[in-house]
Design a protein that fits this description.
binds nicotinamide-adenine-dinucleotide, Rossmann fold, N-(1-d-carboxylethyl)-l-norvaline Dehydrogenase, domain 2, 8 strands, eight-stranded mixed sheet, alpha/beta
């Protein structure tokens, strides 16, 4: 029987990890430890939390006191044993690298107390594979947030081959406490629900440009006005990162063995040229290096 969630650990203080730690504290009221591998990375994560909390306060969505309480409930650390101490739920948001994650799951399994739930925010790595590195695979599942976790209302819960019902229910409860709606992905299938549909759509947008059917601006305009998407697929690709998208299409190809998931040559060329999207300053569009939004 899985334990009720009282305290949370977030492993990884990057783009997703800091946001998950923030929402767990700000909305869920959880006491949160936040781990990264270097002091400068946890400090950068705390800086991003402070910056985001300040925006909530500025907009009147949090009082100054609530903002301070949100930050004070998050405890940054570089020590895994300390991060795991007394925790009921571990949310793993470390770099999307199977080898790195498997090593982390092995160490978590050695150090964590019995009954601790380990939930991965992975976008494409098999939950069953991650669970296989632990002593209690029944306690492992996927808990896939969307970027930015502070604002996006959905969490996909993914059942690995051995995930127990108690684990799913505990993660569903913790997600609800964080103000999130959940959907259950009943099978550990690549891309889960959202990315399984989104990534082929993003790919198809790239093929339209590659084949000279339309310019990027018109592909985005067509999808925004014709399908009512809040942003066009190529702009979204720039936000997600072209390298990340290429990795996902490669996982899809490998797992599904279906040519409809093939990676466009244009995507591969752009990644090779370092045109990764917003994070590198240029993808399908040019971006101001430090600005939150680009010129599109
Ligand atoms: N970026 C997105 O839009 C998005 C959306 C949903 C899910 N995800 C998933 O979230 C996870 C994190 O992605 P991100 O975009 O935050 O990446 P990121 O590179 O911004 O952050 C990853 C962090 O993990 C840290 N890290 C590496 N090894 C670690 C370890 N052993 N212990 C603790 N921390 C470690 C890194 O130092 C880095 O700070 C990935 O699995 C990714 O697939 C990303």
């Amino acid at each position: 029987m899985a334990r009720a969630i009282g305290k949370v650990a977030v492993l990884g203080a990057g783009l997703m990890g800091h946001g998950i730690a923030q929402v767990a504290s700000q909305v869920g009221g959880f006491d949160v430890s936040m781990l990264d591998v270097k002091q400068e990375f946890v400090e950068r994560g705390m800086g991003m939390v402070r910056g985001s909390v300040a925006k909530f306060v500025e907009k009147g969505k949090l009082t100054k006191e609530q903002g301070e309480a949100t930050v004070s409930r998050i405890h940054p650390t570089t020590d895994l044993a300390e991060a795991l101490k007394g925790r009921d739920l571990v949310i793993e948001a470390a770099t999307e690298d199977p080898k790195l994650k498997l090593d982390l799951y092995r160490r978590v399994s050695e150090l964590a107390e019995d009954g601790v739930i380990v939930a991965s925010n992975t976008s494409s790595i098999s939950i069953t594979l991650l669970a296989s590195a632990t002593k209690a695979p029944a306690n492992v599942c996927g808990m896939h947030f969307f970027n930015p976790p502070q604002l996006m209302p959905l969490v996909e819960i993914i059942r690995g081959k051995k995930t127990s019902d108690e684990t799913v229910e505990a993660v569903r409860g913790a997600s609800a406490k964080m103000g999130k709606e959940t959907v259950l992905c009943k099978k550990d299938s690549p891309g889960f629900i959202v990315n399984r549909m989104l990534v082929p759509a993003l790919n198809e947008a790239i093929f339209l440009v590659q084949e000279g059917v339309a310019d990027p601006e018109d592909v985005d305009k067509a999808v925004k006005l014709g399908l009512n998407w809040p942003m066009g697929p190529l702009q979204l690709l720039d936000y997600v990162g072209l390298d990340t998208t290429l990795n996902i299409t490669q996982v899809f190809m490998e797992e599904f063995q279906d040519s409809k998931y093939r990676s466009p040559t244009l995507l591969k060329e752009m990644v090779r040229a370092g045109l990764l999207g917003r994070k590198s300053g240029q993808g399908f569009y040019k971006w101001n290096s430090s600005a939150d939004t680009g010129n599109k």
